Amino acid sequence: ADVAMYVAKQARTGVHVYQPADDQDTPRRLALLTDLRSAVENGEVRVAYQPKVDPVTGRVTGAEALARWTRADGPVRPDEFIPLAERSGLITPLTEHILDTALSACAAWRRAGHEVPVAVNLSPQMLTGPTPVRDVVAQALRRNDVPAGFLTLEITEGGLIADPVNGVRVLHALRHLGVRLSIDDFGTGHSSLSRLTDLPVQELKIDKSFVQDITHDRGRRTVTVAAQQLGHALGLHVVAEGAETQEEFDALRDLGCDSIQGYHVSRPLAPDDFLRWLAEHSVR
Ligand code: C2E
Ligand code: CA
Ligand code: CA
Ligand code: CA
Fold this sequence. Notes:
The chain is α/β, with parallel strands linked by helices. The chain is about 50% helix and about 20% strand.
């Protein structure tokens, strides 16, 4: 019970006790990697979509594409298989697959009359990896005939630590394509205030570790307010992630967040369910 309480407390404070990514290559991990490789090759990784809404108008401002993978023995969490993909070179083909799937979904939403941009997570490794990510993105946009402005790329600032000069150069190249760029997980250890002003980004996402419990936790509320004010001072669209209750949703709206994403609005949905959700929630 002590351990459980400790872990719960650490999770609440955002300090991770157990980090799967730091584990050695255990037999489970090697078996996972083998299966993940064939899942990526066979296009078996699916995508769920979670809406972001304007809390004042109710309008849908976008949808985040989230990778989903089910193995024979059940679903594997992205927190487990994404780091595995990142360390094994699978992240590039996996991201290409997610980009293609998400952009073809976005094209379908538009055909159904929903002008909703889609957001894809870009792993830090891809910014400075051997494959030119700008070309990967440009080709996916062309293949799916989606205007660049309908794609947002969510990137953590951590990706700019290893090779900041090239990382920022790649961000500018992506921005020149016309895609929107979003700083993800803002407020976590991966972000630094200093560089934010230099980045060609349009959006800032406040991480759910700050958003959750803002109605009861003064410290987190303070961080959320500061992040929101900083984002607006820099002219960015501010998204709060992880609102689970009406109280949290209302508080974030009152703080002035431009978009809210979280279970209170909707869980991430399978493509068909998301299209139905869009039809039910379209504001005219
Ligand atoms: P993230 O980019 O911060 O994505 C948001 C995560 O918060 C998602 O978890 C989403 O399901 C979850 N979430 C949203 N609203 C709520 C809420 O109200 N309460 C709670 N408790 N959680 C909420 P998910 O789908 O498990 O993904 C975890 C992480 O895995 C993502 O965090 C992202 O870093 C990574 N990831 C997922 N899909 C991809 C992908 O296609 N490519 C890359 N590179 N990373 C991905
Ligand atoms: Ca994200
Ligand atoms: Ca996050
Ligand atoms: Ca993340």
